[in-house]
Amino acid sequence: MTGRFAPSPSGDLHVGNLRTALAAWLSARAAGERFLVRMDDLDPSVSVDRHGQRQLDDLAAVGVDWDGTIVRQRDRFTRYREVIDELTAAGLTYPCFCSRREIRDAVRAPHDASPDGAYPGTCRDLSDAEIARRSETRPPALRLRTDGASRAVDDEVAGTFVGTADDFVIRRNDGVPAYNLAVVLDDWDQGVTQVVRGDDLLSSTPRHLLLQELLDAPTPRYAHVPLVLGPGGDRLSKRDGAVTLADLAERDVTPPAVRHALLRSLGIPTATGDVEAAIDGWRAARRDPGRHPLTTVTLDELEREWSPSPDAQGRAR
Ligand code: GLU
Q1: Is the pTM of this model over 0.90?
Q2: Are residues 87 and 64 in the same domain?
Q3: Ligand 1 mean position, distance from CA 107 (Å)
């Protein structure tokens, strides 16, 4: 049994990312599972070396540890490309020349139940001649032909979620394999049996289920954890102020105080840094999810927990 956390090394982790990481880690450790950290560094514009190490340091600072070496997506392009070629040879892909804007502005059929941003199928039936002509001016992305199939995700937090897998991109038009393909192959190849991640990815999970079926890969268990919300009620972002461990350190909020606040937001009463106590607290909270549901938490609520009043600091240590 194996769990994992897979950050994108595009900057420092914020407390929302750290909370999800703690949930994934607790979930694996409470079940006696292995826990892996993987770098989702597909995007060539991000500097893994600079951000990746800081992310690992911050995970360790809030008490997340992991087994084995860190796998990086950037080292796995050969594997992704092999599978892209297999799917293409099986007639399951097509090139797509649409820009983001064209997709956004496309008219959708009246009873189309696909999620916002889903691909409307514009390039699904282009002729070979048309593909050749368009390729002269713009390199195509490659999409999976799903015919709008829908799949039900049996999610440990969200319950049953039914969504469509639109014809999603598996290779971007700059040639880089896409996240929705890579994540399925990574989890499969690493023997991941439990995926705990932010619930912003729940609506993409039907795509992952469909791809697992096509590739004959096992489906892990899924638990999508509600996010930390910023002051405006949207998901937390770096714009919301002091949200990384480095920002908070400047305000004398220590990593143990952040850990404490995050654990409490996950329904764990522990006030100490003790690993076993945190794992026991998680087990107890998950046994009684009616009393300790995993819900969103606001930055304000976290701030109240870690605010450096003498009393709060005393409890955090
Ligand atoms: N890299 C993704 C993120 O940082 C998470 C991917 C996943 O957990 O599947 O949002």
Answers
A1: yes
A2: no
A3: 30
